[in-house]
Amino acid sequence: MQAYTVYNQSGGQGKTTVARDLAAAHAEIGQRVLLIDMDAQNGSLSNYLGVDDNKRNPEADDLTFHLVEQGQGEFSDLIRTAEPNVDVLPSHKRLNRVDEFLDSHENYIGQTKPDDWEYPRYERLLSVLRDNDVPNEYDVVIIDPNAKADTVYYMALYATRNVVIPAVPTRSGYESIDGVADSAQGFAENQDINIGRTAVIPTMVDTRKGDHKDYAQKLRDEYDAPVYFKSLSAFESAEEQYVSVFRLFSEHRSRIRKSEQNILPKYRTLVATICATFGNPLAEDAWDGEEIFTGDDFWGTSKFHLQTLMSLMTQSIKPWG
């Protein structure tokens, strides 16, 4: 199973859109995907895909209860199917109080533990996923936490050990990557685990702006960003329809505008790159050459061309330096 967290501690970087549409790209080639929404805000991933109807229901079961062994039903009953091969574990407002629940859980089970026992707070999400056979049920798990370096984020990191970082090509977006690196590296050292930078993705790029062009190319050159995404109305239209951009084009649009024609190829190239980075290269017939992004006048010829993506057998997760 491939697992990664889509994260940037700076808001407005496009992380939820990226998580949603990466899931659809994985699903397009038959991979079973579980999206885990760990953002209690209203406009989170669950809302983007129209499965947040229980978010404010105080009687509803949710992940928070299962993290502290108080689930009100089966874990599988929490999961909703949003699109073919894409399931969602929705978020709930209760997740805002996750530290309170975890503190109570620690106090309860700590009564029977030795004095030097340490509560495995950040391991709780991984334990729940393993206990409910998620690694065998799904090929890909993508977690979308809120834009805070808090307990929820660190549980996501512990469970996935990999981060995909979307960043708007501005000074603050560029510098935010160091913030992600600092939080991930510090946490990894504290927990004695390895956390890799799986991909950096320039988002909401406006190639008419000089600073956007400069920072997008810096992201490409310094972080091997395989693709970039422009700020296009298609992403907003997908949100309005509660679907991924893949489903938007297949079911809600009669034609794809010229400016939008590279959106799906870029997501396919990004997924192929991620799979290769995990050491799980896609079969050569997953997509044909016309279905992936190999570069354009702005980006240049992508080194992540079809032959590289489909034949690469192993590639370690990228270091932070």
From TrEMBL:
Coiled coil: none annotated. Signal peptide: none annotated. Pfam families: AAA_31. InterPro entries: AAA_dom, DNA_Partitioning_ATPase, P-loop_NTPase. Residues 4-178 form the AAA domain. It comes from the Archaea. PANTHER family: COBYRINIC ACID AC-DIAMIDE SYNTHASE, P-LOOP CONTAINING NUCLEOSIDE TRIPHOSPHATE HYDROLASE. This is ParA family protein. It comes from Haloplanus litoreus.
